[in-house]
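Checklist before submission:
- one chain only
- standard amino acids only
- sequence pasted in full

Submission:
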Amino acid sequence: MDGDDVRMYGVLPFTTRMTVVQLESGGVWLHSPVRPTPARRRAVDQLGRVEHLVAPNKIHSLGIEPWKALYPSAKVWASPAFNERHSDIAVDAVLTNGVEAPWSGEIDHCVVDGHAVLDEVEFLHKPSRTLIITDFIQKHEVSSASWFWRGIKHMAGILGKDGGVALDIQFSVRDKTAMRRSVDTILGWEFDNLILAHGHCLQGGAKEDVSRAFDWITGA
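Returned file contents:
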């Protein structure tokens, strides 16, 4: 579900997207929630009651509190460093690699270790064989920004369907061995599809595309 456009660091234009999963229990799992509007809430309510709100990294906090206000019983799951940046947002559980969640049978998760800034958790929706990635891979729409910002995103390696891992993310790795282990775990998952928070998604062929995006760390 696409959300409102935002300005990263108050400057760089970004589109936003949340992923909505209808669990086998009938509840709803929201990944990187965008701001709720009446139309968005109606669409989600048609699937079931919101039970889980997921903040996949310390940057993506936008819709957590607004959705929590609408669904007070929903449980907030957050990345390891989320509360270091958002100490005012109540978190019910921290997503470490060892934590078990009520949805673990349907949705697998992996914390990407080894980065100096980004504490991102990636997810696999097993029934649909769909990988869900927030900021590590970006494929911004060519038509969604001015020529100036298109040029910036092109230089960063995140423009269009051939986008991937931004250069600033690649240059900010503090432990390549730890990150390689995380990427190997993700590439070991069985997935065909890809949902991104920013830009083009893929239906089919995602494993090859994600492998290409991470070849700077895997050495492929």
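Reviewer check: The chain has a mean pLDDT of 92.
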